[in-house]
Amino acid sequence: MTGYDVLAEVYEWLISDAKLPPAEFAASFDDVLKLLPSNAHVLDCSCGTGQLAVGLAGRGMQVVATDASEAMVRRTVELSEEFGASVRAVRANWEELPDHFQDNTFDMVFCVGNSLHHAAGATGRGAALESMSRLLRPGGRLVLTSRTWELVRARGSRLEISDRLVRRNGRDAVVVYRWEIAPHWEKEHHIEIAIAQVDVTGLVLVRSELLSCWPYRYEELEVELHRVGLQTELSTFDLEAENYMVVASKV
Ligand SMILES: C[S@@+](CC[C@H](N)C(=O)[O-])C[C@H]1O[C@@H](n2cnc3c(N)ncnc32)[C@H](O)[C@@H]1O
Question: What topology does CATH give the domain 7-149+216-250?
Fold first, then answer.
């Protein structure tokens, strides 16, 4: 059971309106997808509830979706069925990926939506990136998106409560993030996420989970990518923006 097994049930309240439709989630990567043949082999290795994987399959790509959480993988299978998309979904954490797939298999590997910080520190992150790199064919690309942890850490521990109700499946919820920022970068940090659904009678149903995470500086990430044979080709890193994308190709 991972923390995300609980959140899987209510994960749509955490996805932005723009990324909920699979085609739109995939379209947010148009700039990198245009580098691929239409039948490319792609892996989403932290697939969550499957929006990106299903969106990529909708473009004719051969898609594998993996995640450490069994419940997330189940939701990906359900979404694929709902959209009639052909997605192979497998429960595997990053370090287990080489047990399931051969080296040099994929044209593109996605690790997006604030996932990599769940790898346990520099060692766990190195092992995760090593797995992703092994599965890429030479010239293949890793597409990674990340929070700008430099910004997140500068704000310190805090409570963040959504300033409007989020409506999904006809139900409204307040989304709360509690950030527990450790004094040092390399220490385990925590994010507690609560989704408080309010029904028409005023009843409140709460699902919450405390997640562990290990932040990293952008410059560390660049070194770690390089160490596993990946060369940064494009980066949108900006110290003033909340998130960034890195595209790194296998040398
Ligand atoms: C914030 S969610 C992002 C999900 C999806 N990529 C998205 O953008 O909506 C992080 C995902 O990473 C997965 N995850 C966490 N640790 C993992 C690990 N060690 N190996 C593989 N997946 C992991 C979680 O189960 C969760 O589905």
Answer: Rossmann fold (3.40.50)
